[in-house]
Design brief:
Order of helices and strands: HHHHHHHHHHHH
Number of helices: 12
Strand content: under 5%
Mean pLDDT: 79
Structural class: mainly alpha
Helix content: over 70%
């Protein structure tokens, strides 16, 4: 709209234009570097988020498969509890990293169903953990992923030695995988709690807006009626790059679909 208005005023009313494109050429180099740094920093956050959830998927599968191998030694009830906890972890993690976004009814329903199955399966196998498991399903659990990690550690530790087939060596191996899974909680929280500084994002947006807003004044003398289409294309391209950076800088809420990973 601004480009069309400038074109009409210049061609019909003699509105003066900028003498040349020198200012936009000089500022264009700085603007390009700013957009590149902005997009690269956002893409690094996207890549880190994708790697974290790939680790969650791999570790969850490894723990579930390992417990299935030692099902006879651990007992059917304890094995079922551990597997249910592993299944619930990704859903709890998804809810944890999307705490400020609108509630996902399907994800919440799936998580509650898994926790209910865990409540039914636990029986007396975990002894003194009954109250803790009951609290995990309540509203007082502020960090459900870490709560699930704690239950997993205690459940694995409670498995008794069975000859040479399940000893302290296998127990430590399983516990080490659970500890690796717990590290993903902190890595996700680091991305969520340390977003791209707002001053950096705001300055980039203002710079692009001013540059595009005044571009028509520099082009209208040369392009005349062709100014509006050219300015429209340039504005679309630059603001498109800027919007891509805004979307991928928050990987857990806007760019990565976590539900298929949880269901896998």
């Amino acid at each position: 709209a601004m480009a069309m208005l400038v074109t009409v005023l210049h061609c019909l009313c003699g509105l003066p234009s900028l003498p040349n494109l020198s200012a936009h050429t000089l500022l264009g180099s700085g603007l390009s570097l700013l957009l590149v740094f902005r997009t690269n920093s956002a893409y690094q956050r996207f890549q880190e988020g994708r790697k974290i959830w790939n680790d969650i998927l791999d570790l969850s599968r490894d723990i579930a498969l390992s417990v299935a191998v030692y099902r006879q030694e651990a007992g059917a009830q304890k094995s079922r509890i551990i597997i249910k906890l592993v299944q619930a972890f990704p859903y709890a993690m998804q809810r944890h990293v999307r705490a400020k976004s609108p509630a996902n009814a399907r994800m919440h329903e799936r998580l509650e169903r898994l926790l209910e199955e865990l409540h039914e399966a636990r029986g007396d196998s975990l002894g003194g953990q009954e109250a803790a498991l009951r609290n995990m399903t309540g509203a007082q659990a502020r960090n459900r992923p870490l709560s699930i990690i704690g239950r997993l550690l205690r459940a694995i530790r409670s498995i008794d030695d069975v000859g040479t087939s399940f000893t302290n060596r296998e127990r430590v191996w399983l516990l080490s995988m659970v500890n690796q899974l717990s590290h993903t909680v902190g890595r996700c929280e680091r991305l969520v709690q340390t977003p791209v500084p707002l001053s950096y994002a705001h300055h980039t947006s203002r710079f692009v807006s001013i540059w595009c807003f005044t571009l028509s004044l520099a082009l209208v003398k040369t392009l005349r009626w062709g100014t509006a289409p050219v300015v429209f294309f340039v504005t679309w391209a630059l603001f498109g790059i800027l919007e891509i950076g805004h979307i991928i800088e928050d990987p857990f809420r806007r760019s990565i679909d976590l539900t298929p990973i949880c269901e896998a």
